[in-house]
Amino acid sequence: MTLNIPDAPLRRTMSVWIAAVTSVAIAAAVIAATPTRANAAATPVNLGTAATYGVLGGATVTNTGPTVVNGLNVGVSPGPAIVGFAASDGGPGIVTPPGALHTTDDHAGQAKEDLTAAYNQAGGQTQTDAVYNAPTSSVARR
Questions:
Q1: In-domain check, residue 93
Q2: How many structural domains does the chain have?
Q3: SS3 141
Q4: Where is the signal peptide (predicted)?
Q5: Where are the alpha helices (DSSP H) in 1-142?
């Protein structure tokens, strides 16, 4: 004996569509309500004379490839040398004006002090306004 129920396939199709639309709506609501970005209000750090440097090191600065530092200084302090930027040592590096090489001079020394002060200032900032909400899974693990 066979039952003839003409509305059964239509009801099944409608149930699947309603479930799919409901699932998408719930997923969209969960994504919209879950912030996952960290937001922190940091105070800008003044680099002082260190802002004029593209490369600033404390020991020897060594360049090994075709590097171009556009308009910024290359310096080292208290280290002894910059290698790979001067034509005299056959280096491939180029420093374009107004940038210049500063090896253990007063300019590089002051920039190194300014960079250290900026690093300490940045490291000492508190992140009181930082907010991070880890995303949570809506699927239960079994």
A1: yes
A2: 1
A3: coil
A4: 1-40
A5: 8-33, 106-123
> Which candidate, 71, 55, 57, places its Cα nearest to that of 109?
57
Side chain identity, residue 20: A
C-alpha dist (Å) from residue 99 to 1, 75, 86 = 94, 10, 13
Tokens of 35: 């912030």
* Structural contact between residues 127 and 40, judged by C-beta atoms closer than 8 angstroms: yes
Residue corresponding to tokens 């690093």: 119
Give dist(CA 35, CA 139) in Å, integer: 18
pLDDT (tens digit, 9 = 90+) per residue, 35-67? 665 555 668 889 999 999 999 999 999 998 889
Q: Comparing C-alpha atoms, which of 90, 87, 100 is closest to residue 54?
A: 100
Model-level pTM greater than 0.70? Answer: no
Any domain includes 60: yes
* DSSP code of residue 78: S
Q: Which residue matches tokens 């409608």?
A: 14
Q: Do the Cβ atoms of 73 and 93 come closer than 8 Å?
A: no
Q: Which two tokens stand for residue 79?
A: 């280290």
Q: Write the DSSP symbol of residue 80.
A: S
Query: Which DSSP category does 134 fall into?
Result: -
